[in-house]
Amino acid sequence: MKILWSLEPFHQDKARLQGMHRYLLQVAKDSKNILAAFIVTRTEPELVLAYDIPEKERFSKYPLSFIKKLFLKSAIIFDEKNIIVKDDPNLSVSGSVDSLLKIADEKKVDLLALYTHSRKGFFNFLIGSFAETLIHKSKKNILLMSPKSKIKKKINKIVYGTDLGLLSKKHLKTVIDISQNLECELIIVHHFSSVIMKKGHNVDNLKKRFEQDCKKANLKYKFIVNDSFSSTAKVLQKIADQEGAEVIAVSSKVGPMASLMGGSVTRQLVKENDDAILIIK
Question: pLDDT at position 159, please?
Fold first, then answer.
């Protein structure tokens, strides 16, 4: 699996860098499959105010050199050919996301990875969020980690929340492939109250199909149906804590309508959860 890691080198310490790199290595299997990209805007004071550096180098050679030294200090072995610095002189979050997605398409990556800032409230609504914009626009899977995430040595369990809807079969295959790659247990969770029931919607039948797919993949799995009155995000968080899972996987829609889903499960998990979040597209 090929991965594009979206870096913010001036806002990530040694522990965060090592934690993300450890998880990405497990997914990618080979460090050659991990690319790191820094979209350079004109909003980083560390660059804008670096008047001692020639302007031609301030937004290109200097951040590239900084990233190399940062990886070296963090004891992260990284091929410098896989480090991409893109000078993107704009103040638009959406524009920066588009630049990252263009790189992802050009490099034909399978997964995007980045840290969130875990902002909450009206302030975040006003200024926008790179991570949230990426979730709405990206057609590729995304691994999000909070600065508070507790990184373990190995990913042993993934909790996957599904509504058993039209895309669930396709997304389950993606989660099964990732779980097989990681050699980890998959815990499938269906929160009953999160679904608007339709005629013919049979949880037992769909559960059997999911279980058959897991058995064919020779995957260790567990299927949990939960009918509590809590929000789906809270249910997934609680089960992940109980099971000791390192990653919570959820499905997310793409496009304009997705950006209007302010109360979506994905948004709530990203805002409030400290586990790694895998967003399946």
Answer: 97
